[in-house]
From TrEMBL:
Residues 20-87 form the HTH gntR-type domain. Keywords: DNA-binding, Transcription, Transcription regulation. Gene3D superfamilies: GntR ligand-binding domain-like, Winged helix-like DNA-binding domain superfamily/Winged helix DNA-binding domain. This is FadR family transcriptional regulator. CDD domains: WHTH_GntR. It comes from Denitrobaculum tricleocarpae. PANTHER family: TRANSCRIPTIONAL REGULATOR, GNTR FAMILY, UXU OPERON TRANSCRIPTIONAL REGULATOR. The keyword Methyltransferase does not apply. GO terms for molecular function: DNA binding; DNA-binding transcription factor activity.
Amino acid sequence: MISLRLPMPESVAAKSVEGQTAVASVAAQLTDLIYAEMNPGLSLPSEAEMATRYGVSRVTIREAIKMLAGRGLVEISRGRRAVVSEPSGKALGEFLGWIVQYDPKGMFDLVEVRMSLEIKSVSLAAKRATRPALAGIENMMQGMRDAGRKLEESEGDLAIERAFHQCDVGFHEAIALASGNRVITSLIEAMSVPLERSFFMSRRGKALRGLPLESTIAAHQKILDCIKKRDSQAAENAMRQHLEESARDMRAAFDNRSASIGER
């Protein structure tokens, strides 16, 4: 396993910043080291080497590494050195999931973020999508059609509905991937769990508004058609219309739930 050897300092390197504990100070310096010099998969130096390097105890080093693991920067396992993690949106996804689940306004905040992020994503996809990328979007589109047909035949089976929404999430992730922008792709992937939850709510609102499931499928097909035509402006407009419609669906579901609670 590849690891990084730290140069010995001329003096004690770990100088706690005012207001920081020794653990926080070491964690901050290790974070700088990871971002500046280390690639995913590279092992941190041994606890003994880091303790000498930073002039602290091995217990302090151990706690600092746990702090980094909590931030998703490293992976730790018993008996092995900590390893720099692959970039992940897990922490952001958990935060967004919490907001959507526990904050009534969270769903609508998510739509506002999607307005900026996904309109740019689809615009870039229309310009940059490769054949494999287009095939990925089309596969998710077909998955939505198949799950939608089964959902209507089952009259609301939750497992099938979840499969439909997962393909919907996959559709938006595939567009982000087709955009060629790694930051957009990472952010959309981090939003997968809250997106799925919002899609369940949107589906309830659409039913309350008397709109068929086919309208959701048609909206996605329109977006795909614009991407395939390389018409970035039309793709932006189609995505914007889709997101605005989703917001109306969620508002209908939210208002209905609020009314039901008020009647109790």
